[in-house]
Amino acid sequence: MVLTERIQSEKLRSAINMLKVIAHPVRLAIVDLLTEKNRMTILEIQDALNLEQAIASQQITLMEDKGVLKSEKIGRSKYVSLRFPKMQTIVDCLEDCCNEH
Fold first, then answer.
1. pTM of the predicted structure, to 2 decimals
2. Are 31 and 93 in contact (CB under 8 A)?
């Protein structure tokens, strides 16, 4: 059975869009960082990746909009985390593929 028969087309389109979003160096770095830290503030991500505030906010907002990240406001801080922690598998697979060559 092929993938399009195992997964509903709407869910498959959503997954494809998430893959497209993380196919960017900064956004992939954010995913990688969140696989290690689980939950971080935008400022923590900005500092860890040495990003300008506007770039960090823009990338995180896009990732939230496409369903890659979820956020939670605690006090004055906004925390983000991976909506699907199994995204770590994608990062691990990419790392393995890159290290094989």
1. 0.89
2. no
